[in-house]
Amino acid sequence: MARDVCLAHPDLKPYDPKTHIGFLRFLMLRFGVNTNQIMVNLVTAYDDINKLSPLIDALLEQVPEITSMVNNVNTRKADVAFGEFETLVFGDPFIQETIGDLTFEISANSFFQTNTTQGKHLYDEVVKAAGLTGSEIVFDLYCGTGTIGLYLANQVKEVYGFEIIRSALEDAEKNAQRNKITNAIFLKANLDTFFKSGQLPRRIPKPDVVIIDPPRAGMHPDMTNYLHKFKAKKIVYVSCNPTTQARDAKVLAEKGYEIKSATMVDMFPHTPHIETVMLFSK
Question: Cβ of 262: how many Cβ atoms within 10 Å?
């Protein structure tokens, strides 16, 4: 349907990442499987909401299930769906999804597990690996919208989440408030440099457990080499890329940590992709 609309309106020209000419870059969808909510994220090469109008009108008319629509504008050459700014087109600037007893707000640029059912199994494996007693200080690195930290917040003393994307942090804070969680604090941090350069406020205590859920590229070498300085009893490493996880695991082993357990979660059935949950301790 979207393709037909674009073909009927020459102004809706697809963006060519080689020549950097064109308007439409991506049409991204996010689903709340347990809430039946749908977000449409129209990513364009520049800001022109009037040019988008035929596509917007057609989508809202033919897909009444849509609950949120936003326009992310990415004027950079990088071929990514993350815009420099965002315009709300319809509904709320987020959708909601539930995992366990928690309800999460998810915006267009925030990371959230796409397979919610398996996401719960994944988080259960994190809790199992951490072996929580209720007295722990937990650092949740690359926390995104705070899902892992908030999922285990009622089983620990305090959770500190660290994330570089501002919109994800805002979602994390809203999610904590929505779920009446008061022992979770979120900080904006570029983890490539944050700890190494001494930016951690002194008021924040050292962690007993560190949870890591980095992007596919894994951790920056400076972050990997700094981890042992926390002197955490346990490190739980969640990864969608076993190759980079193995690379980082080698560094942790050199710093004195041993792999105590490793679990695979089939997040994307019928594909070669898996998530792994690995427990390190000294």
Answer: 15
- Domain count of the chain? 2
- In this predicted model, what pLDDT tens digit does every residue of 175-193 receive, in sequence order? 999 999 999 999 999 999 9
Say whether 240 is catalytic.
Answer: yes
Domain match, 27 and 147 both: no
Tell me how far apart the alpha carbons of residues 24 and 44 are, in angstroms, rounded to a whole number. Answer: 5
Query: 60, 93, 126 — which closes off a domain?
Result: 93
Burial group, residue 85, by CB count within 10 angstroms (0-12, 13-18, 19+): exposed
Range(s) of the domain holding residue 270:
102-281
User: Which of 240, 249, 252, 278 is the catalytic position?
Assistant: 240
Q: What pTM, to 2 d.p., does this model score? A: 0.81
List, for residues 45-75, the tens digit of each pLDDT value: 999 999 999 999 999 999 999 999 999 999 9
